[in-house]
Each structure stands twice: as structure tokens, then as C-alpha cells.
Amino acid sequence: MTMREFLFVMTTLIKNILLIDGSGQPAVKADVLLKNEKIAAVGLFPRYQADTIIDGMGAYLAPGFIDINTNSDRYLTIFSDPSQKQFLLQGITTIIGGQDGLSLAPLLYGSLDLQKFWTDPYAINVDWHTVEDFFDVLHRRPMGVNFGTLVGHSTLRHTIIGNDFRDLTAKELDVFRYMLAQAMHEGAFGISFDLQSPVAALTPTKEIKLALETIEKYRGLATFKIRSGSDSTVHLGDTKEHFVPAVMELINLSKETGARVVINNFSPLIGFEEPYRTAIESIEANTANADVHFSMHPFEYSVVPIVSFLPVWAQRGGAEEILKNLESPELTAKIIADLSGFSGDDIVIHDAPEFDYLVGKTLRAFGEDYGTAMPETLLGLMRLTKLRASLVHHNLSFGEFNHALASDRSFIASSGASFEDKRLRTRPQLFTDTIPTYLGKVLAEKPIALESAVYKITGLPAQRLGLKQRGFVREGYFADLVLFRDAHIETVFVNGVVAVRDGAYANVINGRTLIHANE
Fold first, then answer.
1. Model confidence band, residue 1 (pLDDT cutoffs 50, 70, 90)
2. From 3.40.50.300, 3.20.20.140, 3.40.50.1010, 3.20.20.70, which CATH number describes the 98-131+146-299+395-403+418-465 domain?
3. Which of 20, 338, 377, 380 is the most buried (most CB within 10 A)?
4. Residue 117 carries which DSSP code?
């Protein structure tokens, strides 16, 4: 402890709580003592006189929740909304970005072209190239939550070969491996893949294996959206036969490389219930020699970029080329033919930069306003927004959720982002209410014990990521803590400072940039 730290030690005692420590063990009555940013002691301290005393009055105290799959970096709201309070209000104190093949670093040419489908890439000035540069920027622009990042596979590929859709040459693979190793050395937590995207759908297994072998040297993590085996990344059609083999590909890659693998957004699609159960059984049957987990969220819908509704062949070449194709009568007719049977029912406009008045409208209502029918309505929205829109798609079979939750290979992640209040008026709950919805479901339906439910959003993701001194309530760990009663979040600490008090944001920014500790 430095002299400055010694002179300014602040103590906080959180007493009369039921402690859920993040390990999955049953809750116990306890008090927790904080000194500055760390947990100083866990026990019973009825007469301890701290600078601040918080009486939990029988509420639960848990580690700060860790969201391993988030998109605030993709939407660039880590810059426009540094508080990230929509995570804090859920008790989430740590978020991990760089998901689904897209990351904000490394950017050797300073280009955010791949973010065009999600936001305006020119909204910020990109003054970094490497992961280390990116972290330097974040150190100067802190957030309300702790933030770590993976490296996007599609981002690396785009840096090396642009919008080309081909295998990497031997020389390009060497560059790919070098860039990934350098990013891991600089503190990235691993790599992410979106094998449903047109950029990466045809990625050969040998390239994926090379990436996993590289990150395993640093004990990193690999996250995936599995291959769809379909001509469209959203409308899977008759692709059930591809589902289990796509999961087995990742199981086998984990076996061969020893890498930790997480399948993101692994919620059951409507009509895919049977292969979904088979896939989970395959994951569980291979736990002895394959380190594979999966994440899901407790809702019946997902948020997808509007471009995902196009046939894969029509998604290739970058935003400008896709928009050019949408102006071609011949190609438009071919797209419409490929989208035959598309009804647009239960699809809501989730985000449309520069067209906020559209947010919350159903796709059908948009078509009625413009006098068009499906699928022309979908293409019209693509043209209007220049592909910078995302849609809420009610495509998940919620009946399988409890069964999947009971697996010790599952955990919860939002796949969400934090937005400023003015942009939240019609956003789905997964951006603002994932954790309270999850906890409420567990408390009401009891598919698993509450302590196990908390483990899936604390200790388990911390272990998968290799986070140091976070994810558990233990002496010497950082004081990221959540006090909650029923499913209501009352108080949130981030690195020892109260960021949420009485369920309201306390206007505090005390998050840290997390750098992976290479082993």
C-alpha cells in the first residue's frame, strides 16, 4: 500500500445480508467489509465502525454480474454513453465486447467499415490501430462498467483482404496468426467468430483451428455463432440437418486444440427444439476432453442487423455493393424470389440511425405507410436506412429455455448494449432488463437454485474469461458487488464505489479497462 492509499483508506461495511459468493454454494448470513476498491474481509462484524455502513436487511449480496456477450462497442455507445448505465441498473459491472467477429481493434487502416450495418462509423474519430492503442484511448475515456474485448475474426480478415470472400493464402495466414498473437499479447481476451455472416460463413476449419491454437497459448477464449448451413443467416429454412454437425465441429476443435469455446446466442430457434437438445447432449457428453459452453438470454426474440435477412449471396461485397444490388431490377427480382414466403410478422424495427421515428414500428406497419407488401417492404427499409438498421425478430422457442438452463454448460448473456435514455423508449428488454428478467424467472419457476443461477452470471463467466480477482466475493477481490431483493437491483458497487443506489443510477463512472493476464 502506498502512503497516499494509506492516508485515504475508506471503509464500507455491508451487513445483515445473505451472501451468494459466486461459487454456486448455498447462501449464508454474512457481513462484507470493503477498503477502497477491494473486499477486505467476509464474516460477521456486528460492532465494526466503518466510514459507511449499509444495512442489507436480509437482501442478497452477490458479485457484480458479468455479461460475456455485449455490443456497446459495436454500436459505439461506449463513447456516446460512457456511463453504460443500462448495464449498471441490471447489476452488470463487467462487459465483454468484440463479439460476433467484430471488434474495434486492431484497425491497421483506421476503418470501421464493418460497423456500418449497426451504426454510423464516422460518429467518432478513430485514433488507434492496435489493441494496445485502443486500450490507451479507453484509459483516457473511462466507462461506468469494467470493459474487456475479444478480437473479431471478421475484423482481422477485413484488415488483411478487405471484402474478398476467399480462403487466406499461406502468407496471409501467417499475417493473421501474427496479428492475433499480438492482440492477445496486448491484452485481448480471445477471438470471436460469426460463422453465419457472409464474411466468415465459408471460413475453412483449418483457419479456425489456427486461431484456436494461437489463443490457447495465451489461455484465451473463443466465442462463436455456429454455421447455419443455409442460404440466409436469419431464415434458416430446412437446415436442421446442419445444426448438430455445426456444434460438433466446435466440440472437435476444442478437443484438438484445448481451447475454451463458448457458443454465443445459443437459444433454441422455433422448429429446432429436437436438434437443439441433441446438440446440448453432445456438448455434455464431451466435457472430459472438450471445454465447450454456451450462452443464451431469457427472451423469445433476438436483435439482428437488417442485412441478415438477405440471402447470403446478396450480402457479399460490403455495404456499397449490397446497396447497388438493391437498385438493380434484375438482382432485386432474384432476391425477392429467394425471400418468397417471407411474411414479416412479429418483426419490429429496433434501431434506425437518422430515422428514430421508425423505431418501435412493426415491419408490416412500415409497409402500410409506404404502400408496399412483403418482401418489397423489407428491401425498401434497407434502401431507406442504407442498411444501418436492426430488427427484433421473434424467432426463439422459449419452451426449451429451462431445460437448457439446467445444463452446467450454460450461462446467461444479453447480447445487448447500453443506450442513452432518449433512444430507449421502444427497445426490447434484452437491452435493459436481461438480468432482472432472468432472476425473476428463476425465483418464480425454480428451474435451478438461485445460487446456481448467480454462478452462471458471475463465477462461471469469470472462469471462462480468466478474469483475475473478479466474479467471486472473496477477500482481496475487487469490490464489484450487487445487493438485490427478489429480482430488484438495489445497490451496485463498481470497484468499491456505489454506482447504483436505491435502484437509481448514482452518476458515477468508476469502471476499468480490463486487460487479459496472459498465463
1. very low
2. 3.20.20.140
3. 20
4. G
